Amino acid sequence: MAEFQVFNRTTGDHIICQEGQSVLKAMEQLGMKCVPVGCRGGGCGFCKIRVLEGDFECGKMSKVHAPPEAVEKGEVLACRIYPLTDLTIECVLLPEAALAKQTTTKTLR
């Protein structure tokens, strides 16, 4: 099975991503917290990253959070991209409102 090195230009970290493994899953396995995590299914947009170098394939992502023109520029969701070569990425900071929404907890009564 192939392994790909992912260099995170935002943090300076390197991670190893197995063939068929999403970049987010590889980050989580190493305890990295470069991006916020939401649904892990390409729908919420929290784990947005920018791929600066390298080739990858995409799983299904929300077109609201990753429209085709953004994907062409490498702006993708870490939970739904799978490296085909070594990658260089940057984490994309979310607006504060989105981060606040992610950290809000609900109280059950």
From TrEMBL:
UniProt keyword Oxidoreductase present: yes
GO molecular function annotation: iron-sulfur cluster binding; phenol 2-monooxygenase activity
SUPFAM superfamilies per record: 2Fe-2S ferredoxin-like (SSF54292)
Signal as UniProt keyword: no
InterPro entries: 2Fe-2S_ferredoxin-like_sf, 2Fe-2S_ferredoxin-type, Beta-grasp_dom_sf
Segments forming domain 2Fe-2S ferredoxin-type: 2-95
One Pfam family in the UniProt entry: Fer2
CDD domains: fer2
Gene3D superfamilies noted in UniProt: 3.10.20.30
EC number(s) from the headed UniProt entry: 1.14.13.7
Protein name, as recorded: Phenol hydroxylase P5 protein
Source organism phylogeny: Bacteria, Pseudomonadati, Pseudomonadota, Gammaproteobacteria, Pseudomonadales
Gene field: dmpP_2
